[in-house]
């Protein structure tokens, strides 16, 4: 791990070169501890695959003080080794009605749609980063047998709740937006709600599992098959 200056009032912590379960867990634990330690001095924390950006209030503290606090947190062995994270289960209505690319993805990887669904929900995924849009969680790693590149031509509108695969990653679109991931289903859970606390059901470092549900269950849980 190393700490570097990232601006007049920011430091960035690098935990490794690539996102891995242990690295993601270390980022999450460091963020949680630094939020508590820095308190009123903190402006924001921005976790990513293998790094954590620490933005502080330059009127309340300085570079040296924040760096000392970071060193104290990083020296905690629990922060370096704990790979557990919370386990969050998210429901998904799989199928061609909900996932426009399920059949084409299955054909491309040489499996049936049912086999793709089985492999997708059999995995346990780490939340490596949240970005692109509020609540868009990058989850990995998808079973290599169902890994598939992004679409050559992205869609202009992907519906809220769409579950997609891109290479070895999977994700749920939190809102209607453009996107090029291969869509295989829909999740009724809101991935971002500014009026809810917490505003997102997952955070960096969590573990995610998907549970297959029926169309009726999807609708009952507040899901919609409209594109709005």
From TrEMBL:
Gene3D superfamilies, sorted: 3.30.1360.40, Cyclophilin-like (2.40.100.10)
Cross-referenced SUPFAM superfamilies: Cyclophilin-like (SSF50891), PH0987 N-terminal domain-like (SSF160467)
Keywords: ATP-binding, Hydrolase, Nucleotide-binding
UniProt-listed InterPro entries: CT_C_D, Cyclophilin-like_dom_sf, PxpB
MF-aspect GO terms: hydrolase activity
Domain Carboxyltransferase: 1-202
Pfam families recorded: CT_C_D
Name recorded for this polypeptide: Allophanate hydrolase subunit 1
Species this protein is from: Marinobacterium maritimum
């Amino acid at each position: 791990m190393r700490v570097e200056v990232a601006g007049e009032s920011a430091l960035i912590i690098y935990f490794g070169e690539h996102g891995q379960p242990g690295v993601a867990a270390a980022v999450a634990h460091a963020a949680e501890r630094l939020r508590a330690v820095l308190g009123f001095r903190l402006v924001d924390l921005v976790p990513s695959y293998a790094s954590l950006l620490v933005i502080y209030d330059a009127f309340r503290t300085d570079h040296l003080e924040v760096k000392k606090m970071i060193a104290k947190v990083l020296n905690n062995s629990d922060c370096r080794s704990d790979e557990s994270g919370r386990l969050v289960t998210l429901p998904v209505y799989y199928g061609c009605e909900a996932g426009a690319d399920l059949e084409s993805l299955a054909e491309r990887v040489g499996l049936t749609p049912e086999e793709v669904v089985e492999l997708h929900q059999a995995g346990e995924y780490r939340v490596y980063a949240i970005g692109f849009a509020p609540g868009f969680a990058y989850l990995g790693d998808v079973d290599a047998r169902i890994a598939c590149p992004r679409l050559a031509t992205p869609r202009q509108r992907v519906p809220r709740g769409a579950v997609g695969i891109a290479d070895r990653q999977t994700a749920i679109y939190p809102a209607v937006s453009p996107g090029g991931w291969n869509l295989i289903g829909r999740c009724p859970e809101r991935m971002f709600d500014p009026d809810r606390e917490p505003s997102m059901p997952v955070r960096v470092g969590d573990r995610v599992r998907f549970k297959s549900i029926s169309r009726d269950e999807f609708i009952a849980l507040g899901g919609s098959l409209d594109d709005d």
